[in-house]
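Hello,

I think I submitted the acetyl coenzyme *A job twice by accident. Can you confirm which output corresponds to this input? Input:
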Amino acid sequence: MNPRYSRITGTGSYLPQRRVTNQNLTDDLAARGVATSDQWIVERTGIHARHFAAPEEKTSDLGLHAARQALAMAGRQAQEIDLIIFATSTPDMVFPSTACILQDKLGANGCPAFDVQAVCSGFVYALTVADAMIRSGSARRALVVGAEIFSRILDFNDRTTCVLFGDGAGAVVLEASDEPGILASELHADGKYVDILCVPGGVAGGEVVGNPLLQMDGQAVFKLAVGVLEKTARATLDKAGLQDADIDWLIPHQANIRIMQGTAKKLKLPLDKLVVTVDQHGNTSAASIPLALDNAVRAGQVQKGQHVLLEGVGGGFTWGAVLLKM
Ligand code: ACO
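Support: Only one job matched these inputs. Its output is below.
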């Protein structure tokens, strides 16, 4: 018989060693003739610092550190994993997938491994797919990773975007269980908004064609994000038969403190139920939710038996939520 649920049994995360404060970034940008300030960044976004990967680090390396921590917490060996899903928009290579590269680094060779590309919603997409595969009986123990090196696709001459993002990784081990774990999820996309947040360049004939750096209409993204996050949260709660007040922790994609606090207020959640890491990590895209989850677990905030709502929103335009019992 197929298991009724999948449950998170371990979490892990990793931040590259190099921490870049707003002041560090402001000084670096000033040398290029790009004006910004700690005050502007903090007031508009809540970000104080982010981490940037070293030149030799790859997205799979960041994912590997996070995956090893998650496996250790779950008490599992890599060889016991029978599914790897890797959420990223900054893969090591065009192909093969970063999931395959990670699989080899872990020594978990043989199990299915693939990437999910849904930008900042990537982790909730990947977790939902892993949950469905576990409940259908096609996997029993999945490793779900979100990792990004956005610093490599930022235009450091564009102050409206380069101050927002950072690098990092988070991971969870998700296992078949008869105890409640993932209770409900919702995924959405609307491709008519491709242009408001994208990296439009590609590779053709051995050349980069088009702009290979991130471009964003920040205000359009902001308005869409605020609208969809409340709606998706309510739809996910409805599916699980729960109310706003049943949420112990809200862990939204960490893009901007104003979007996150706005969502918490709409859900009538006190702000101390909101897990915030954007201040120290910046926006790490697909890594932001598992990084924040792992931080909250290791800080003793998120505890077994509590209801946690994860919410992603990002390029595509994509959005979604996963409601789970830890
Ligand atoms: N430093 C100083 N001034 C700046 C900077 C900067 N880094 N960036 C922009 N400004 C200036 C602008 O030029 C503008 O000046 P002007 O009034 O003279 O024209 C002024 O600040 C205000 O700019 P706005 O764009 O109106 O600022 P806003 O309050 O909208 O904040 C921000 C911009 C932070 C980008 C906001 O719109 C936002 O957070 N949007 C959502 C972004 C987001 O969540 N993105 C991630 C989605 S996830 C994914 O999929 C990757």
